[in-house]
Amino acid sequence: MTPTVDASRVRIATYNIHKGRGLDGRVKIERILRVLREIDADIVALQEVVNRPGRSLQDYQAGYLAEQLGCAYTVGDTRAMRRIAFANVTLSRWPIEKSQHIDLSVAGRLPRGALRTDIRVGDHLLHVFNVHLGTAVRERRAQARLIDERLLKVFDVSGQRIVMGDFNDWNHGLVTRTLAREFHLTDLAEHLPRVRAYPAVLPLLHLDHVYLDAHLHIEKARFHRNRRSLVASDHLPLVVDLVLAHS
Fold first, then answer.
1. Per-domain residue ranges for the chain?
2. Would you give per-residue pLDDT tens digits along the chain (247 residues)?
3. Rounded distance between C-alpha atoms, residue 233 and residue 214, angstroms
């Protein structure tokens, strides 16, 4: 796909695809692809993507989705299980200049990480951080310190930052407070009729977030909710339309 003609407006999305396994118990990455086509975003942060090159499309989900959507992509492998690697994947219709996996793992817990992808959107440079954090409260407390050290205090960031993903921080703990100190936007409550979107069918928790630097303005935001997206994963895609202001 070709990128949006107006480079001052960008649609972003974050989506935990749950390895392509839907609520019907079936792994159907083609169903995730159809949801992504409905979203029609320029930049997408995916979590829990199966990444095993050389196998079936159900195994090599990152490459399949990127090829079908005509996107560039970056992969940050987070953990391996039964010879299958699970990854954060960022898709982009715009040129990618750099990517880096950031380890956010905590001893005794499953490996976790953030994938940094630097994307050139017209005259703008966006630093997109695709994050997937742990499920335990103490784990996320440790990860909040890692985010501060390894993500927020890096010195080679010259453009605007987008931090989005599945934070698992349902109780608005130290992770939320750490990011709130850094960014003006701490949640999307003023743009969304409801922020709880997990699990998709019976939403009880607010796990998926987007944090933005000051020169990135939200035009509108929504959870993509229809019959297909309610079944495709246990998360709903969070879609945000941005206006890129000049700094």
1. 9-241
2. 555 556 789 999 999 999 999 999 999 999 999 999 999 999 999 999 987 766 666 678 999 999 999 999 999 976 655 555 678 999 999 999 999 999 999 999 988 999 999 999 999 999 999 999 999 999 999 999 999 999 999 889 999 999 999 999 988 899 999 998 898 655 577 788 777 878 787 777 888 999 999 889 999 999 999 999 999 999 999 999 999 986 5
3. 32
Cis peptide before 53 (omega within 30 of 0): no
For domain 9-241, give the fold. Deoxyribonuclease I; Chain A (3.60.10)
244 and 216 Cβ atoms separated by less than 8 Å: yes
CA distance 83 to 86: 10
